[in-house]
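Entry, Tuesday afternoon. Goal for today is a structural model of the target with molybdenum atom bound, before we commit to ordering more compound. Inputs were pasted exactly as handed over by J.K., no edits. I checked the ligand SMILES twice against the vendor sheet because last time a stereocentre got dropped in transcription.
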Amino acid sequence: MSVEDVTDLYEEFGDDRLPPGQRKTSKFPVLSKGDTPTWDRDDWTFTAGGAVETDLEFSYDEFTSLDSVTQRQDFHCVTGWSKLDCEFTGVTFPHLADLAGVRDDAVHVMFHALDGYTTNLPVEDCMRDEVLFTWAFDDEPLAPEHGGPLRVVTPHKYAYKGAKWVDGVEFLTEPERGYWEKRGYSNTADPWAEDRYS
Ligand SMILES: Nc1nc2c(c(=O)[nH]1)N[C@H]1C(S)=C(S)[C@@H](COP(=O)(O)O)O[C@H]1N2
Ligand SMILES: [Mo]
């Protein structure tokens, strides 16, 4: 398995790999708004819809059979810890968007998750190969508390932009705010600008 190192992504945003005000941790803390939801491998589906040419629906086996990549990337939590060199395996956002055919009037994205969590980003912030729908961390199936079966990772943004337990992506023609974005966390969430709160 080849691993692509994308930990130099910070060069686009700041001088230091560790964003301002962050501390490195070797642990992987768990942060969720509630309990870890349960899921059933036979019933779980992932959907892509909204402003797309083709609505998509995948079972777990179908999704994990799509073309995938493994990347080494960093993870920055808005509460101040960063975990460097995480290896995530999954489907890139641009690949998924390509399969659905994103319409020209799509400007924004809402991610939906099994626990009712939502988070939003402009389409252009999602259209980078480092935004992954991932099912494996360090070559092991993603642990339930970290978002298994499937989560999003957004190494260019604070980690609340990455929905754990993601089961849907919706393309929108107008911006909307997700769970934390409605409750005071920054809508833009740039770690190098310390965009923590709005
Ligand atoms: N579905 C869902 N995704 C979520 C959350 C959540 O509560 N529910 N919390 C977010 C927050 S605030 C953070 S910091 C990261 C934490 O990921 P971790 O628990 O794997 O460290 O997940 C994000 N994604
Ligand atoms: Mo968070």
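Residues 52-193 form a domain with the Sulfite Oxidase; Chain A, domain 2 fold (CATH 3.90.420.10).
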